[in-house]
Amino acid sequence: MLCFGRAYPAISRILPSCVRPYSSAVIPDEKGFQLGGIYPPLTTPFNADETISFDKLADNLTQYARIPFAGYVVQGSNGEYPFLEKEEKLQIVKFVKDFIKESNKPLIAGSGCESTKATIRLTEEMAACGADAVMVVTPSYFKISMNDAAMIAHYTTVADSSPVPVILYSVPANTGIDLSIDAIQILAKHPNIIGLKDSGGDVTRIGSIVQKTRGQDFKVLSGSASFLLPSYLAGSVGGVCALANVLGDVLCHMHSLYEKNIIDKELQRRLIDPNNMVTRRFGVAGMKAALDMFGYYGGPNRSPMLSVSAEARLVIKKAFVDNEFVPQSR
């Protein structure tokens, strides 16, 4: 049973219980972690002073527990992970894992850093804090040097060392780098790399990746609700979709329909404009505004990201209402 109304200890009192060095890597047996379904990339709730609000995170998780999500993702783009300190990232992993433990749903944590060494260390620490798998975004600061050879070496070294399965994460809108199909095809053969979250929006690319990795125990997840249904038709098995934070029941319904071979084209079309509001147009700030509208806690962003204006909130609300998703308190 989920626990409500708990008091949550400070970072300094949480970290020692989960952060410990690993003497050696432990590779899971033959990719025992299976991807599939809808995973919300959780936002990080902040108080007015930009400290993390664990009470509000608990409130959101309590509501999400009523939705048939396949699992949860923390420290993705929607979690504002570049703005979080390492200790905060680990604290969130431990908190969410403890909160959802009795649901038996997996927790995926974003452990990608710019260097391979830092990624390995953060991966180990997140696993120690309860992450069941890690999602590793492409390094991107030195773009000119991030060729296929560098990416293959990076991900291979991380996966060799990781005590939990690794999911590749390609999000070119944020990083400027699209992990190549050739590199993915090679990495898919690694026994500890189980899949890819692809947020690029090119459905033909998703289809090509699925085709070229056939025969491998490797799955592709759509990175956006805007192309969720087309990605299913191209061979993806689910999605890590920002819009799932707000319309999780709707996205899970679409997944359920597809599993029954029911193609709801109208529902997919209705998702496009609301999704654009919380991704391409207004980003995480738009997402948090939408959460507030639908009875979850969105709250402020961490600086330098600003909250959306009152005028933008009206635009966001209209996009949902026009597509028959009516904001309501919970």
Automatic annotation (TrEMBL):
UniProt-annotated catalytic positions: 169, 197
Spans through the membrane: none
Domain of life: Eukaryota
Entries under InterPro entries matching the protein: Aldolase_TIM, DapA-like, Schiff_base-form_aldolases_AS
Keywords annotated in UniProt: Lyase, Schiff base
Disulfide bond as UniProt keyword: no
EC number(s) from the headed UniProt entry: 4.1.3.16
Reaction equation(s) it catalyzes: (4R)-4-hydroxy-2-oxoglutarate = glyoxylate + pyruvate; (4S)-4-hydroxy-2-oxoglutarate = glyoxylate + pyruvate
Subunit structure as annotated in this protein's UniProt entry: Homotetramer.
Main function: Catalyzes the final step in the metabolic pathway of hydroxyproline.
Protein name: 4-hydroxy-2-oxoglutarate aldolase, mitochondrial
